[in-house]
Amino acid sequence: MTTKRSLILAGAALALMLGASPSQAEESSAEIAAGVPAGPAKLRVVGPDGKQSSAEVAPRSDVQNYCSNIADPALDQRNALQLAKLKDAEGQVSAKIDELEAKRQEVQSWLADRKAFMDSTSDIMIAIYSGMKPDAAASQLAGLDRPVAAALLARLKSRQASAILAEMPAPIAAEISRVIIEKTDRASLAGAAPKGQSL
């Protein structure tokens, strides 16, 4: 047997095994080569009772084929765009969280400083200065360190503190007032933030 003849026999045997006659195989290969569909496609359907049936599926148009071919890339593009937007939003949220955390730490530090300032004077000293006449207390407080004098005045009643400050020389009263403001006013923490803004 020649090689050509054995190839022809093998091809015929293969066609018989597939259940198609040589003429049908030639027709379908010619249709495929021509780009013509082989007829309506059939869809195998298995019912709930297990019986099989087939239904014809209408051939798809070129527009439907085009749409189905670009559907996945378009979906991928939309997903990529949404992912980029989410990452951008995540970055903005993360930056805002960092900013708020810095503000929280700043306020915590201010509260600790204020508490330390207010606690730096003893109750006994407050009682002593609150019982003194304003002019005598003013001369005594003017001789103290400014932070200590400010802490004592901050713990006195406002009427007593204002009377004592009124008896002090103006430059000393201004220094003590500045220390009180720095230690007790949150706006001074922000570097004298504009009115209406708070931390």
From TrEMBL:
Q: Does the keyword Signal apply?
A: yes
Keywords from the named record: Cell projection, Cilium, Flagellum, Signal
Where does the UniProt annotation place the signal sequence? Answer: 1-25
Protein name (Swiss-Prot/TrEMBL): Flagellar motility protein MotE (MotC chaperone)
Question: What organism is recorded for this protein?
Answer: Aureimonas pseudogalii
